[in-house]
Amino acid sequence: NKKAFVELLFWKSPATIYEMTKGYSSLQEGEGTTRSRVPPWTPHEEQELQELYWKYKEVEGGDIIAAILAHLRTPGRTRRQVVKQLVRM
């Protein structure tokens, strides 16, 4: 492809660079950018998050997010994910 050099002018992700050097469609399913996606919140998790928020929002001098993370039944959620979901809700 004579115009492949144009691709080099724009920022690329590591997965795209790998495909450019090894050949397109060389990434297997579950590799690259799709691997780093955050699992979506289920309705049960959203309900639990809402209940924990209402339970700990009135606590004086405490970190609400830390209390929610300590009592969240689903492990593996980060502080950032919890804050982002609360803002979205």
Automatic annotation (TrEMBL):
GO molecular function list: DNA binding
Gene behind this protein: Timeless_2
InterPro entries assigned to the protein according to its UniProt record, in alphabetical order: Timeless
Pfam families reported in the protein's UniProt record: HTH_TIMELESS
Organism ancestry: Eukaryota, Metazoa, Chordata, Craniata, Vertebrata
Species the sequence originates in: Cnemophilus loriae
GO (cellular component) term, any one: replication fork protection complex
GO BP, one annotated term: DNA repair
Name of the protein this chain belongs to: TIM protein
